[in-house]
Amino acid sequence: MSTLKEVREKLAAKQADLHKVFSEAEVTTDSGEKGYDFTRVKCLGDGVKGSIAVAEKVKAMDAELNELGEQAETLEAAERAAKGMKDREKILNRPPMPGGRDDRGGVRGRIKSLGEMLAEEKSYSEWIQRGKPQGIDFSYDVLPSDILAKGMQVDTLLTKALMSTSAGFAPESVRLPGFVEATTRPLQLIDIIPMSQTGQAAIKYMEETTRTHAAAERAEGAAYAESTFAFTERSSDVRKITDSLPVTDEQLEDVPMMQGYVNGRLTFGLRQKLDTQVYVGNGTAPNLRGIANVAGIQTHAKGADPVPDAFYKAMTKIRTVGRAVPTHHVMHPEDWQDVRLLRTVDGVYIWGSPSEAGPERMWGLGVVQNEARAAGSGFVGSFQPAWISAFERSGVDIQVGYVGNQFGEGKRTVRGDMRAALVVFRPAAFCDVTGL
After folding, report:
1. HSE (CB half, 13 Å, CA atoms) of 139?
2. What is the pLDDT, as a whole number, of residue 141?
3. For residue 113, which of 69, 152, 57 has the smallest C-alpha distance?
4. Are 203 and 421 in contact (CB under 8 A)?
5. Where are the domains positioned within the chain?
6. pLDDT of residue 328
7. Which of 386, 387, 393, 385 lies closest to 202 in space, CA to CA?
8. With helix as H, strand as E and coil as C, how does 351-382 read?
């Protein structure tokens, strides 16, 4: 007969063996999806080879694990029953409570406090009437443990007055640590945009605006063909994003967590605004010019195509016109929802079973869900340093100081700012997909 500990140890060992089999069999397809190739399994020994033999072994191991799991559950239930039996025995053997009912249905005597016994003592009341001459001695035949227990409990048994929270001692309320955060849009786009540092107030760069290759075959002695190349200086100004919050001195000093909360909230807010600006900023100072408003980006209307087809055609435009390799799709969560719920005519979900999370990928590229732009439009882009980059001038800077009459009011202002610029070096490496 196995004990619960032995069954658990055996279950853990068998589970580790099965995990090793799956680890050896796991493969990644060209599209990035996970799968299993059981011909790769070696840990089962030379006697078990081939996908069918390994699969049968895996089935047997899984069945054995299920059986061990049921054994463990049965033993655990038995141990819980034994513990419950001991708890019930403790209740049966517990001394009777004062004021409760005895075996004959009568009321057991209630333990009186020292104050009650003193007030009922006849010799004490007579001593008071005599004007309290000298002192008085009297004794009680009572167990010390009863008096100590009486002094440490609230007397509610067989008393006339009802002890309640409204006319008694209110229950203690302890607040849980931390707080429930308010909902806000997370950072979604800047994580895939390359980030660099700059010490300038504007990002200036040269763009090759004319590139004409005239290479051609020529006969001996004929004039050489001549190509044409021209460059234009471009510039993207560094813009400033700011935020601030007034805080009392007591809040900063008495709650250390508040300092981290203020710093973290301001920092996140600045980067959240940058996340919005790099996507939909209109370019009018002091706004950045986001990808959606950069001149020269390509566009593709979905039309009657399914959404995946429209994005694939946008990928083709990036390859053939932009001469870049697309790396990411960007779309609103509601547009991605329509893709995730696509089904075949017989009701099979194309992007995986509803019981699975499913890959957030389309045509082999990662899908970035972004809410800074309304549903109905998306992007395909080549988010590589050669074609796009964000530049930080000073990063996020947090400062604390006094503003106006705050010194006399016991307040301080926590402020934060950052300076950044966005440069889309090759607009044709991005394609706006509309009409989703």
Report:
1. 3
2. 58
3. 152
4. yes
5. 4-82, 195-203+241-434
6. 93
7. 393
8. CCCCCCCCCCEECCEEEEECCCCCCCEEEEEC
pLDDT interval class at 135 (50, 70, 90): low
Place of tokens 């463990």: 72
Give the residue from 205, 259, 203 showing the smallest Cα distance to 236. 203
Residue 308 φ then ψ, to 5°: -60, -35
SS3 411: strand
pLDDT band, residue 177 (cuts 50/70/90) = low
Residue 167 pLDDT > 70: no
**How is residue 262 written in tokens?**
């203020």
pTM of the full structure = 0.58
User: 314-319: long-range contacts (C-beta < 8 A, 24 or more apart)?
Assistant: 314/380, 314/431, 314/433, 315/363, 315/365, 315/380, 315/431, 317/431, 318/380, 318/381, 318/382, 318/428, 318/429, 318/430, 318/431
CB 193 within 8 A of CB 278: yes
What token pair was written down for 56?
């049968």
Least confident piece of the model among 37-51, 132-146, 396-410: 132-146
Asked if residue 92 has pLDDT above 60, the reply is no
Q: Give every CB contact of residue 313 below 8 A, 6+ residues apart in sequence.
A: 300, 305
Tell whether the model's pLDDT for residue 125 goes beyond 80.
no
CATH class given for the domain over 195-203+241-434: alpha beta
Q: Are 396 and 271 in contact (CB under 8 A)?
A: yes
CB 299 within 8 A of CB 359: no
User: How much is the mean pLDDT over the chain?
Assistant: 80
User: Do residues 247 and 412 touch, judged by C-beta distance below 8 A?
Assistant: yes
